[in-house]
């Protein structure tokens, strides 16, 4: 099945109150595991590629080629979107779409609201002409590189009025408002702004995106979905599962040298992690008539 835009899958998720998982690609094994997990769970899926991973994985054409080849090789029939995660410039978004990505995130959240709107509007106009979906971010979603604890993230919540302005002046398809989630492992108890989340969704009418979906309590995931979160990003949990499987294998088999010996268990661990998230998000069995 050819890659699809994520707009329709997110709208369906919003209407039926589940979330589609975005699982980030780190290498070949991650791509294999995520596609296989989605197919086995009959779930739509979003493959995320963060900007720093583009050169690591051989460039945009290489990534698109690998994804398309694996979809054909495994006979994948569920809807699959290929998404640029945290694109920092108009130019990288253009290059991603021309390479074959079906969705982009323009992250201008570190700019002023006016500057964020300006670049997001340019990206959206270009992407929609080319049939791609656009995600934007407002507020600041923290991470390990910021050296901030979870309590400090609460002070960076997106402002509902700013979200409305961004949405209506840019025409984006989905919104990632900063509401207390964190990239990477959480240090402390997460504090998601559920009241503000519900208000932003009501005011904008758009599917919301939750970044930093690893490590959140299941009850908070379910509450976020009930409030209009239709896309949840996961990477750290899958990376941790992969690394733990490799460590375990090499501890038991220190003589091993063939990468397949430890990468196959790693791939299976990633797949199990992805399948668990798909079920938690409620997207299993939601591929409609596409999955066979």
TrEMBL record:
GO terms for molecular function: fructose-bisphosphate aldolase activity. It comes from Paenibacillus anseongense. It is an enzyme of class 4 (lyase). The gene is fba. Its cofactor is Zn(2+). This is Class II fructose-1,6-bisphosphate aldolase. The keyword Cell membrane does not apply. Transmembrane segments: none annotated. Keywords: Lyase, Metal-binding, Zinc. The lineage of its organism: Bacteria, Bacillati, Bacillota, Bacilli, Bacillales. Pfam families: F_bP_aldolase. PANTHER family: D-TAGATOSE-1,6-BISPHOSPHATE ALDOLASE (PTHR30304), D-TAGATOSE-1,6-BISPHOSPHATE ALDOLASE SUBUNIT GATY-RELATED (PTHR30304:SF0). Its EC number is 4.1.2.13.
């Amino acid at each position: 099945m050819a890659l699809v835009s994520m707009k329709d899958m997110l709208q369906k998720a919003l209407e039926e109150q589940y979330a589609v998982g975005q699982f980030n690609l780190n290498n070949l094994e991650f791509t294999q595991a995520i596609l296989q997990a989605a197919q086995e769970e009959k779930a739509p899926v979003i493959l995320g590629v963060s900007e720093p991973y583009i050169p690591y994985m051989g460039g945009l054409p290489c990534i698109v080629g690998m994804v398309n080849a694996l979809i054909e090789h495994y006979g994948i029939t569920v809807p699959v979107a290929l998404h640029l995660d945290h694109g920092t410039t108009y130019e990288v978004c253009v290059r991603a779409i021309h390479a074959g990505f079906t969705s982009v995130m323009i992250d201008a959240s570190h700019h002023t609201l006016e500057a964020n709107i300006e670049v997001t509007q340019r990206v959206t106009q270009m992407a929609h002409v080319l049939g791609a979906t656009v995600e934007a971010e407002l507020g600041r979603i923290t991470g390990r590189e910021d050296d901030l604890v979870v309590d400090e993230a609460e002070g960076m919540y997106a402002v509902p009025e700013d979200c409305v302005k961004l949405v209506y002046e840019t025409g984006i398809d989905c919104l990632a408002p900063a509401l207390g989630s964190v990239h990477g492992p959480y240090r402390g108890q997460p504090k998601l702004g559920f009241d503000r989340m519900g208000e932003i969704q009501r005011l904008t009418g758009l599917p919301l995106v939750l970044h930093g979906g690893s490590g959140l309590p299941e009850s908070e995931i379910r509450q976020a979905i009930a409030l209009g979160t239709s896309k949840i990003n996961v990477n750290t949990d899958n990376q941790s599962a992969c690394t733990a499987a490799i460590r375990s294998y090499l501890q038991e088999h220190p003589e091993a040298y063939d990468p397949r010996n430890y990468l196959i268990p790693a791939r299976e661990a990633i797949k199990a992690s992805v399948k668990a998230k798909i079920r938690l998000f409620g997207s299993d069995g939601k591929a409609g008539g596409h999955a066979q």
